[in-house]
Write a structure and sequence with these properties.
The complex is a heterodimer of chains A (194) and B (100). In chain A, helix 1 packs antiparallel against helix 2, helix 1 packs antiparallel against helix 6 and helix 3 packs antiparallel against helix 4. In chain A, 85% of the residues lie in helices and 2% in strands. With 194 residues, chain A is an all-alpha fold. Chain B is of the alpha+beta class and 100 residues long. Chain B has one domain: Winged helix-like DNA-binding domain superfamily/Winged helix DNA-binding domain (Arc Repressor Mutant, subunit A, Orthogonal Bundle). Helices cover 54% and strands 20% of the residues of chain B. The termini of chain B are close together. The mean pLDDT of chain B is 88. Classes of the chains: A mainly alpha (194), B alpha+beta (100). Strand 1 of chain A pairs antiparallel with strand 1 of chain B.
Chain lengths: 194, 100
Amino acid sequence: MDISRQDAKEFLNQIDTVQNHTRKSIASSYDSGLLILWGLIWVTAFIGTHFFVARAFHIWTTLCGIGTIITVLVCRQQFRLGNPTKFSAAKKLGWRIFWFWISLFAYIFIWLSILVPRTGIQVNAFIITTIMFAYIVIGIWSASSYMIWLGAVVTCLTLIGFYLIPLSYYCLWMAVTAGGVLLGAGLYLRFCWR
Amino acid sequence: MAKLDNIIHQPVRLQIMSSVLALDPDEQVDFVYLRRILNLTDGNLGAHLTKLENAGYIKIEKTFIARKPRTFISATGKGRHAFNEYTAALKQIMGGHEES
């Protein structure tokens, strides 16, 4: 079969485009919905905390409780029906990640009881950076570079908010940056990552 | 002269093979999902999958998940090898060693 050098280049470009599109479509179909959900929860909870600081505990426990229930239901449903791909390690990896999150939250409570942070902002920054640490670990584990970046960027924004932003603006800063980054990343994955 | 595999070289089959080869070796892609990302019709995708399956390049597995029929597609070792040969041939042509 005879083809020109230009045709060969075009075929190789086409292969590259299709492979990138496939990988990104699959990755976004798994993660974008949950990122959007947790981005919305963080934005709402931080704004709520800014305006009703006395009710911060109730705002966070209620919204995170709702978020956790929705996450479990979505993952269960996705696992049963909607997965675009199936692979032998999927079930194991899914359970590993599930137990990793459970262990992490158990340890967050242990660490908090040992360290006894003095302010709500310390508790918040500690939990957010620990969750972002989990994003980085899961990103390394599942070879998802965008999760590693997401974890690193939100960690940096949290540290900037914690050390450099006046305390009274911390929650607004976190709503826009940390919550905004999660929400933005989810929306980008869902609609623009092609 | 670099030889191009006629089965893979057909445009739709090239897209299918590229997409399936983007997955991990033990990963399978859902038929409906593949149809959507490649923007093909059921019939068109089905016909080309059959050709690739007959050549031994892909494996089609029909199963039931939550009582609904699902079809999953994966590349075989032979398919991976053929695709690698195909891309190597294209690179060879592009490199100008065997330009036609």
